[in-house]
Amino acid sequence: METILYAIPGFGLAALLYTFIRSAWVTKQAAGNERMTEIARHIADGAMAFLKAEYKVLFYFVVIASIFLFYLGYTGENSHWTIVIAFIIGALFSAIAGFIGMRIATKANVRTAEAARTSLSRALNVSFAGGSVMGMGVAGLAVLGLGSLFIVLYYFFVYSVNGNVNGHEMEVALEVLTGFSLGAESIALFARVGGGIYTKAADVGADLVGKVEAGIPEDDPRNPATIADNVGDNVGDVAGMGADLFGSYVATILATMVLGREVVSQDNFGGMAPIILPMFIAGLGIVFSLIGMLFIRVKEGGNVQAALNLGNWISVALTAVGAYFAIHWLLPENMNLRNFEFTSNGVFIAVIVGLVVGTLMSIITEYYTAMGKKPVNSIVQQSSTGHATNIIAGLAVGMHSTVLPIIVLAAGIVLSYASAGLYGVAIAAAGMMATTAMQLAIDAFGPIADNAGGIAEMSELPKEVRGRTDILDAVGNTTAATGKGFAIASAALTSLALFAAFVGIAGISSIDLYKAPVLAGLFIGAMIPFIFSALAIAAVGRAAMAMVHEVRRQFREIPGIMEGTGQPEYEKCVAISTKAAIREMMLPGAIALIVPVVVGFGFRGVFDETPSAEILGGLLAGVTVSGVLMAMFQSNAGGAWDNAKKSFEKGVEINGKMEYKGSDAHKASVTGDTVGDPFKDTSGPSMNILIKLMSIVSLVIAPHIATERTPAIPEEPNLNMQLEQEAPSTVQHINPENTVIVAGLTAR
């Protein structure tokens, strides 16, 4: 068993080694002429200034949260003060993940632009190398952090006491490990919301004044907000996304480990197999993602999307094969979780279900957001009759786009549960997230290519250079949209697994909707994603308004700016976005963190027949269902609006007439895209973190609000006989010594 435990952080170290080597390769590439490096330096300085300001504020948050966690851990019987250390490590690793992404993206963007002067193939190599650094860095940090911390906690709490995996000590060890996920998701929420506010404030301001009012192209150096817009690509789509997927990755693995603790099984690893399996599959996913990356190549004039799909499919296929052997090597033939019997084959089927659901969600998302498809075309056609009909069409597409994904998600939940119970639902999410390194590499290369196009435009490089970066950018827009669908599916499955873990630890056997307090909690939970979205979208609106006023002022007061002889004050626009993002991200983040604590502790003992844990369970159910639907609606509506606008750049036929950029229909599509920007890049993606973070906070406080706890199974020589008398259907005769290995405390 020790060999497997030590192998898990080894996977993480290997990923970080690849990150270091690939990052060095990107840095060695040519960075272009003086004008290009100057623009890239402005972008890098703005990005790092935001990150520094954000992390300074988050430092104080970590200190305050650590004090609260120390109190809980010190006073709680089923927790420990070391949860503070796990929380700080999780927050630190999440911050490092964002920093790695920001650093490599601001180096790869200008080098991609320079590579595009040579060929499309070379530009793809550089931009995807930057994305792979991000992907491997995030996966490596997650597996290294979880694996190493689990080893330390296992030896400190379990091995050093009695080595009994079934005892109270393992429960405490996993409760402390939950702190790592809480730290990761907390930083992720602030990074995603803050980054989203920054990037969309700059984007909306640049579009409204630059494109609509002044009639100048995107990324035109005359636009004072263009540097802030390009900084925003890194702040929101790279650093924010990196912290987001780091938190998702960790939460998925942790949820499976917590449920694995309750699995009754016979295995050759001391009862640890169901706990170790999700970490081991994640480690294999790193290896197979690396192999898939080797196949991403494209010739000049080739299909970039096909090349990325090939690498992704190879990673997914290898992960499925690797998971089969890992499952049958680690797990026994028969297992039981809360009176649900399942087999190792059932666990493998659940992993396959997770991979299929993730793939289908990506395909469906692409259909609703891709250029040339019916949903986007409907928005294009209705743009011809004005701004209002464009908005109406986009809202309709976003709402309609929830139907198929929910059906797929519901089918995935039912099938994975039928295959392996609640453990199957959790392992399905873990299997889906196993290739996070590849998924994030594909997602992150898009913003790098987008930045490269902006640098090419501002540096006045030849048109064929911008043409090559536009090809990469178009693919990046598609991968970004499909990546959001993938992230929503994983968040839904992970939240369900976290919810199941919460129910077990809190000691509630059921959540009764006939009880008025529980129903009230359900409605309040369903409301939270709406108020969260309202705050995020309003924040973008306020910041964008300040940006618009500043850009208009510069156009009005700086002589020669429209003629190209005057120098815009880029840094003032960067400062506006930075201050707005830092100020506005606090309240939405506080809601996600404080509401579960208030409900969990505030309603203890208030209702005689309804424990606060049950009310909190109703709240989580409402948040999860409402949040998943809001995430789908907003992300898909925003993506469809965006590509409807981009359709006019190539020219579209409306009522027998070709419409291009600058037409009235195009201006209507720009309005729709502007409305959709905070949908798809601020509030929509934040929904995923919101529902997971509230579940994790609830899981952390669950031991402190538990209503009843099933004691650890006592160590008696005739344990099989005792368990058979209590729950004969859940017990297997295992060995001549009449002992059973139970990876958990409860077997309902």
Can you tell me about this structure?
Sodium pump that utilizes the energy of pyrophosphate hydrolysis as the driving force for Na(+) movement across the membrane. The chain is mainly alpha-helical and 748 residues long. It has one domain. Helix content is 78%, strand content 3%. The protein has a four-stranded antiparallel β-sheet. It has a two-stranded antiparallel ribbon with strand order 4-5. Strand 2 and strand 3 form a beta hairpin. The protein is globular. The protein starts with a helix and ends in a 5-residue tail after the last strand.
List keywords for this structure.
single chain; 748 residues; mainly alpha; four-stranded antiparallel beta sheet; two-stranded antiparallel sheet; 20 helices; 78% helix; 3% strand; globular; disordered C terminus
Succession of helices and strands: HHHHHHEHHEEHHHHHHHHHHEEHHE
Q: What is the helical fraction, as a range of percent?
A: over 70%
**Tally of individual helices:** 20
Low-confidence stretches: 708-748
Subunit structure: Homodimer.
Membrane topology: Multi-pass membrane protein
GO molecular function, one term: diphosphate hydrolysis-driven proton transmembrane transporter activity
EC number: 7.2.3.1
